[in-house]
Amino acid sequence: MTNIATTEKHQASWITISTDEYDSMKETIEVLSDVDIMKQLEEGRKEGTKVRNFEELAKELGI
């Protein structure tokens, strides 16, 4: 772990996002943090399982 020392005053900045976007970000973090799911994804790639990006899939499903 790196130790960080700051001597400046903290100035908070704010951004606003929709609750849907926030929930999506949380879910993405949960998936990326799940070692078992990430192993399954990697195994699928190694086996040649077709991978599509979300936009392509959403368009195909009409969502």
What order do the helices and strands come in, and which of them pair?
Layout (H helix, E strand, L loop, with lengths): L18 H15 L1 H12 L7 H8 L2
Stretches where pLDDT falls below 50 for ≥5 residues? Answer: none
Portion of residues within helices: 55-70%
Oligomer: single chain
Specify Rg, calculated over alpha carbons. Answer: 19 Å
Q: How would you characterize the largest beta sheet?
A: none
Mean pLDDT, to the nearest integer, reads 85
Secondary-structure element pattern, one letter each: HHH
Overall shape: it is: flat
Structural class: mainly alpha
Number of E strands: 0
- Tell me the fraction of residues in β-strands, as a range: under 5%
N/C terminus separation: 43 Å
The number of distinct helices, counting runs of at least 4 residues, comes to 3
